[in-house]
Amino acid sequence: MSASTLDGEIRDGCHTMPVRVYYEDTEFSGVVYHANYLRFMERGRTNYLRLIGVDHAELREAANSEAPGFAFVVRSMHIEFLKSARMDDLLTVVTAPEDGKGASMWLTQRVMRGEEVLIEARVKVACVVGGRARPIPKALRLAMRADQDWASPPPPLRRP
User: Fold this and answer.
1) CA-CA distance, 83 to 128, in Å (whole number)?
2) Between 89 and which of 85, 121, 133, 154 could a Cys-Cys bridge form, CB atoms 3.0 to 4.6 Å apart?
3) What pTM, to 2 d.p., does this model score?
């Protein structure tokens, strides 16, 4: 299996990544424990960056030279749990960039089972240095701009 298969793919204007639900992802009732959806979506965001050409080690090195001690943090997340997934389900995590300015960017994420939407989330990720907001490093801004020719991302979720 190639790394790109593990990382998902860019398709229909979005990053899509398959996730199999394992026993360890479920709670006693047999459904996916709610916090595990956050892990699935984190992998989706990370692999989205990887597939638009952001090498995480190179990004860290370039950003550290530009802004030593930088980190990305989830600033806010609006999430709707619509339906449950169960052990052995094959899910798809869909990630689409919505907007990016200054120190933060918004992403829309969905966890799907086939065509069925299980989870919808809107995530604001911020770049910080020493606990303070700082502009997104140039290396990442350039990679995201190069990716602007995606087809049409799904419509953004309603803002809370």
Assistant:
1) 34
2) 85
3) 0.79
Q: Is 56 helix (H, G, I), strand (E, B) or coil?
A: helix
The letter for the amino acid at 150 is: W
In this structure, of 19-23, 89-93, 130-134, the range with the lowest mean pLDDT score is 130-134
Closest C-alpha to 107, from 50, 53, 156: 156
Three-state secondary structure call for residue 132:
strand
Torsion-angle region of 114 (φ positive above 0: left; ψ -120 to 50: alpha; else: beta): left
For residue 64, pLDDT beyond 70? no
Whether 108 has a pLDDT exceeding 50, the answer reads yes
CA dist list (Å): 122 to 89, 131, 140, 153: 23, 22, 20, 13
**How far, in Å, CA of 104 to CA of 100, rounded?**
6
